[in-house]
Write the structure tokens for this entry.
Amino acid sequence: MITILFFARLREQLSTDSMKISASDNMTTEDIRQQLAKTNGVWAKVLSADSLLVAVNQQITDWSHKVNAGDEVAFFPPVTGG
């Protein structure tokens, strides 16, 4: 299983802060995003944002990163500070 986390406004837009999905061989963060986007139109819109960031095991990564069973994948909007 892979734990999926949603932060900030994503959590509000998707009405969930976490979920678990089954892992498959050679799955990437993009594969996960595409799988989740099939949930419904809201999910598709939120997860298709160009500015969306992804982290695996608390390390920001890119959309080609391979994911393994037991990993934690987090989706979040760009972080700003000031």
Remarks:
- Strands lie at 2-6, 18-21, 53-56, 59-61, 72-76.
- The CA atoms of residues 15 and 55 lie 20 Å apart.
- The two ends are 37 Å apart (CA to CA).
- Residues 29-37 form the longest helix (9 residues).
